[in-house]
Amino acid sequence: MSGKIKKHSEDMSFSLSRLFRKVSTNTPSTFIIITAVIFYSIFLFGGGLYTLINRPIMAYPTEGAIYFLYPGLSGQFGADTLISGILYALGFFGILAIYQSAKSANKPKQAYMMLIAGVALLLLAYMFIEVAINFKITGGG
Length: 141
Prior knowledge:
Elements: H1 2-25, H2 30-45, H3 48-54, E1 60-61, E2 66-67, H4 78-103, H5 108-138
Antiparallel strand pairs: 1-2
Helix pairs in contact: 2-4, 4-5
């Protein structure tokens, strides 16, 4: 009986060491790492850390309107985080489209369309971010 247990434990340690070796030598793909870093950056730039720590309300309803952007620089609503995160992601996708258009220079029509789409996304994101910042600076007025 003890021989059976010893053999089973030796097999177990070999399979565990093989599993440990696979896990320790396995590296995640570059795409996954870059994607995680980009999403984390957008989360931080959008104000996600502030939202997690302070837990602000999502929006502020008044009699005439609902404010999704905090009218001032001293605070932020939860919707501020979502709006700015979406706009930063839109800008990133614009930059990515511009980069892809430069890679496909051998197909001029596709490259031109990707360039136009990328510039449009980038400008759209920039304009809306500027409008949001101006709204916050002027106090919503």
